[in-house]
Design goal:
Elements: H1 2-29, H2 33-44, E1 46-52, E2 57-61, H3 65-73, E3 78-85, E4 88-97, H4 104-121, H5 123-140, H6 147-156, H7 182-197, H8 222-236, H9 243-266, H10 272-307
């Protein structure tokens, strides 16, 4: 009885190794993820779709577009498994068996090969993303300030910056739990939009703590303190204009001061407490300067009156000559 069972298992084992070997050969040949997906589809006797961690389609091995939609929509018989490398999910394998479900051992081994191929295919992309992210971080943190260095780093990434460039910062926050890598999806949308305007645009996901070195304190915010200069100038210049002009100067000054402070909060470079303390510090400094100036005027004016020649004095108030 055991001999019969053993002889019956040998063909199944040969078939298993043959199917797995076909997928392994596709990986070793370096033909790319689409060819590996087709080999996996043949080995599993299934329609196959490979997604990255963000849910974007990487490769398809289906009989027709309708078959592909059925696999993506999770129609009857469709399944999905996570593609993992160590503890990280690098993608997902969606499949729908044409006949019977593939053997679990074969499915697990094919999934492992697919995960490694997805990880390998994303190697250059990750390197490019890392280079773009490092360039933009150095630029915004002002670790890269020389024009020649900026242009050289730009040429390394395939863009020409000799005539200048624009920077657009988009802040994103998930308001509810999201499946997959939602940051990558947001970055992809932002990058497509930017490249629709300028084909050589670069995009990267950056830490929001721009402009603040690691471990440095931003209390109080120097930007907010310096911004109070606008308010101080508006107060000093109030005598040079009428009532409406005086109000307009003050409104513009307050608007600029608020925009600078809130901009630091938006960029993540300062907290609200830092900005509020900066505003308070700036207001205190200029108030102290005003008090010193008033005291100086009151001390100087009596001296002028004592030193004036006989018959002359300092008039206070209006009168006729």
């Amino acid at each position: 009885m055991s001999a019969v069972t053993e002889s019956a298992d040998i063909p199944a084992e040969d078939e298993f190794l043959t199917l797995f070997g076909a997928v392994s050969d596709a990986v070793e040949s370096g033909a790319g993820l689409p060819e590996v997906a087709r080999a996996a589809g043949r080995a599993l006797a299934s329609s196959v779709v490979v997604l990255d961690a963000g849910g974007s389609i990487l490769a398809v091995a289906c009989a027709s577009p309708a078959d592909e939609r059925a696999v993506l929509d999770g129609a009857d018989g469709s399944e999905r498994i996570d593609l993992r490398v160590a503890d990280s999910i690098v993608g997902r394998l969606l499949f729908r068996a044409r006949k019977e479900r593939p053997a679990p051992a074969l499915l697990r081994m094919v999934g492992t090969l697919m995960a490694l191929e997805v990880e390998r295919s994303r190697g250059p992309e990750r390197a490019s993303e890392a280079a773009v992210g490092a360039f933009l971080t150095d630029l915004l943190d002002r670790r890269l300030t020389e024009r020649a260095d900026i242009e050289a780093r730009g040429r390394e990434l395939g863009i020409e910056l000799a005539e200048g460039a624009s920077v657009l910062i988009v802040r994103a926050h998930a308001h509810q739990p999201e499946e997959g890598d939602w940051r990558r999806r947001v970055l992809a949308v932002a990058e497509r939009g930017a490249r629709g305007v300028e084909r050589s645009s670069l995009a990267a996901w950056l830490d929001l703590s721009l402009g603040r070195p690691s471990g440095a304190s931003s209390f109080p915010s120097s930007h907010a303190a310096y911004a109070m200069t606008f308010v101080a100038l508006a107060v000093v210049a109030r005598r040079a204009s009428g009532g409406l002009g005086r109000a307009a100067l003050l409104v513009v000054a307050l608007g600029l001061t608020a925009a600078i402070g809130l901009g630091r909060i938006f960029l993540g470079a300062s907290h609200f407490s830092d900005v509020a303390a900066g505003w308070g510090l700036g207001a205190g400094v200029y108030a102290a300067c005003a008090v010193v100036a008033l005291l100086a005027v009151h001390l100087i004016q009596p001296g002028r009156a004592r030193d004036a020649p006989a018959g002359e004095g300092i008039r206070v108030g209006a009168g006729r000559d």
